[in-house]
Amino acid sequence: MNSERTRVLTGITTTGTPHLGNYVGAIRPTVQASRNTATEGFYFLADYHALIKCDEPARIQRSTLEIAASWIASGLDPEAVTFYRQSDIPQIPELTWLLTCVTGKGLLNRAHAYKAASDKNHAAGHDTDADVTAGLFMYPVLMGADILMFKAHQVPVGRDQIQHIEMARDMAASFNHLYGEHFVLPQAVIEESVALLPGLDGRKMSKSYDNTIPLFAPSAQMRKQINAIVTDSRAPGEAKSTEGSALFQIYQAFASPEESAQFAQAFADGIAWGDAKQHLFERIDREIAPMRATYEELIHNPDKVEKLLQVGAAKARERSAPFMAQLRSAVGLRTLSSQSQAKAEKSSKAAAPSFKQYRDKDGQFYFKLVGAQGNVLLQSKGFISPRDAAAAIAQLTDQGAQALDALQAQLEMIEAPVRQEVLANLSFIHLNSENKE
Ligand code: TRP
Description:
CATH class of the largest domain: Alpha Beta
Order of helices and strands: EHEHHEHHHHEHEHHHHHHEEEHHH
Structural class: mainly alpha
Oligomer: single chain
Radius of gyration: 27 Å
Largest sheet: 3 strands, parallel
Number of domains: 3
Bound molecules: tryptophan
Number of helices: 17
CATH architecture of the largest domain: 3-Layer(aba) Sandwich
Helix content: 40-55%
């Protein structure tokens, strides 16, 4: 186990059959990322999230199989990463509760999915929360638990999920502030090059618009669906615009820049829509066809997939179980036998030093570094502008003790015995600010 590697984590909600949009937007980039040996990958099937949107048990089960099989058929190596099903990790709902207790309700009110639902109700003159489950409301907290449980540094997601990662950071920061530095603050990773794939009708390819092309549909069906992509009415021989063309954008997501440039030229030269569709079908099929056999084999042998997921879950629980034990203890859910930890916490809580800024009678701006017991460790000289005082604080926060020499002229003398304490407190502040970045 190498805990030094950058941890990358992402999940896919198991509510449907994977389509080309899922492939281009999530499956393919995560498979590529999983091959980077400098990172450690966590890839999972978000079936608890699925319950928020779907009350059909058979569909959730089927989707879990299909997404798992798609991921593996697309090249995800379950041995090289931790590949698991969310609901096999009991610590995730357990952590969800701990996070629930440090998450502001107001923060969740602002989450896009919930806000969209309540805005829609509002516009229709219904009660704000009509048909809104508490599950939808809590969606970001469950997602926060997914991410924070495995101390993920990076979370590759679509743009619509950025807010959720930011919320996970907020939850991590609140928890860390209250209980000590347990969580890593995650970062969303948005692949600029990953296309938002349009669907058959030109809107974003999404199950909710019913405009998708299934990833592993049999060849003939895929051809039929590609033929159904909406185009304009330009006749063969007439120049066609690539701009706003769903057909072209889908092609681009599968082709090299050179191939795309050639296709654009064909558009300009007036390629018939029928031929363009044929060309698109062939290009997609070239990428998908070799994976189809693996997909079919897994779909027809669910036991194989189940076994892989069980191995992955055991691997995941090796992390989640001890970490959850640590977290439980941190919040006070712990054995009554030992009371020593509580005492240590009392003193460590008081030990957070901070900068205090103020304006003195002379009209100048000052700051001081105040230590654990309210003792002044560092005293600035007067600044004419509050911005200069703030800049000096920022420098001390960013650089820690290193900034002391540069700022010498702005600070009062630090006596030798105090200096050690100043240094220790500055590095504390510095480290905490780094963790929060
Ligand atoms: N909410 C994500 C989506 O719909 C799926 C998901 C659940 C997820 N938990 C996650 C993604 C944790 C990244 C990390 O796309």
